[in-house]
Design brief:
Layout (H helix, E strand, L loop, with lengths): L3 E8 L20 H12 L1 E7 H17 L6 H9 L2 E4 L11 E4 L3 H10 L4 E6 L1 H9 L5 E7 L19 E8 L5 E7 L4
Parallel strand pairs: 1-5, 1-6, 2-3, 2-5, 3-4
Antiparallel strand pairs: 6-8, 7-8
């Protein structure tokens, strides 16, 4: 069975965006080791899940890097983001946004179970906050990859607000980088 992994940028105090979705607090500078970690996480993935609200910005950003910034240090990752099949979870869109994208409009639990039971590599979700909150609340995420940025926001968007039951996690990795980011990797204990 395929695993659903979350990769999320998060502040030290647990926010994934500012009050209006701002991302100006993120640590954008990545050293070679940090970049390698990001690429390695995606090596074991062949499907990206996105919530509707995050999709346009995500797709536009990575397609812009591929189309206009071939010299960028983000170019190898951007190619993976554009070329990897993306599934947009939505109730309102009638057609996908971007290349290699399709829509999922059914019941969240059923859609996730169906994807996990298909053959292939693992699945990764990047956001948005509301969509990720629903996945966490439903117990659908098997592996958490928290990219903890050296910032405290005090207020903003969180992803754990809908959690109604304790979920025990086991630490499988912790790495710090020269830019101040720490990557904490956890799996749900029930899937060990």
């Amino acid at each position: 069975m395929r695993k659903l992994k979350l990769q999320v940028q998060i502040s030290v105090d647990g926010f994934v965006a500012g009050p209006n979705g701002e991302l100006d607090w993120l640590t954008w500078h990545k050293d070679d080791r940090h970049q390698k970690t990001i690429l390695e996480l995606h090596e074991h993935v062949d499907t990206i899940l996105l919530g509707r609200k995050m999709t346009e910005g995500f797709v536009t950003h990575w397609e812009n890097v591929v189309n206009n910034q071939p010299e960028s240090s983000d170019f190898p990752f951007a190619l993976k983001m554009v070329n990897t099949p993306k599934i947009i979870f939505t109730k309102t869109l009638n057609k996908p946004i971007g290349k290699n994208a399709s829509l999922a409009k059914g019941n969240l639990a059923d859609e996730i179970a169906n994807l996990k039971n298909q053959s292939g590599k693992d699945i990764i979700v990047y956001g948005g906050a509301g969509f990720v909150s629903s996945l966490i609340q439903g117990g659908h995420i098997d592996e958490y990859n928290f990219f903890v940025n050296p910032t405290m926001l005090g207020k903003g968007m969180r992803i754990f607000e809908q959690l109604k039951h304790k979920q025990n996690l086991s630490l499988i990795g912790a790495t710090s980088y020269g830019n101040g980011v720490a990557v904490l990797r956890y799996v749900r204990e029930s899937i060990l």
